[in-house]
Specification:
Layout lengths: L1 H12 L12 E5 L4 E4 L7 E7 L2 H19 L11 E7 L9 H11 L2 H4 L3 E2 L5 H7 L8 E5 L5 E6 L4 H12 L1
Parallel strand pairs: 3-4
Antiparallel strand pairs: 1-2, 1-5, 3-6, 6-7
């Protein structure tokens, strides 16, 4: 009976099935003009979001485009067919960088691979809620989040592309 009471207490406080924080609302547009609000919880699918809010971070974010697209969207890889996931890369234009929004969007429309274009969300959103919630202090680093179907963060990583980081993200998608 005592064990039953402990389990009930853990369940009611979230201790046994603890979930991460809800990802803050982030709005933007795709290169083809579609307005999108993240997280998109209507599909109930897992979501991977990569965010960069500095010029150096944007270069690192771009290094993720092709390998993440191939693994998660095009389904290249040993386990890639065993999960469904939405993938978004978000260059976030803040402060003085907002002036670069339109020129960057136009350049991207001309140079990016048509399939990757569908997964890049340009945003002039506020970075403060993200910085506060997730400690995104370094604007030279891209940040990556895996969200469950309810928009809760289940995993986070950061930095330039590395295969082991991509593999770790995939592990959380298969859980």
């Amino acid at each position: 009976m005592r064990a039953f009471a402990i389990i009930i207490a853990l369940l009611s406080t979230g201790g046994l099935f603890a979930q991460g924080p809800v990802f803050p609302k982030l709005e933007g547009e795709t290169a083809d003009g579609l307005n999108v609000e993240l997280p998109r919880t209507t599909s109930g699918r897992m979501t991977v979001i990569g965010i960069a809010y500095g010029q150096q971070a944007q270069q690192h974010l771009e290094s993720w485009y092709e390998p993440a697209y191939l693994r998660f969207v095009a389904k290249h890889g040993l386990f890639a067919g065993s999960y469904e996931v939405d993938v978004w890369f978000v260059p976030l234009f803040t402060g003085l960088n907002k002036a670069a929004y339109e020129p960057t969007l136009k350049k991207f429309r001309k140079s990016a691979h048509p399939e990757i274009v569908k997964h890049v969300l340009f945003s002039k959103g506020d970075v403060a809620p993200l910085k506060d919630a997730f400690g995104m202090a370094d604007k030279g680093t891209p940040y990556f989040f895996v969200l469950d179907g309810q928009g809760r963060v289940v995993y986070r990583t950061e930095g330039a592309f590395k295969h082991d980081k991509l593999d770790k993200i995939e592990e959380f998608l298969m859980d």
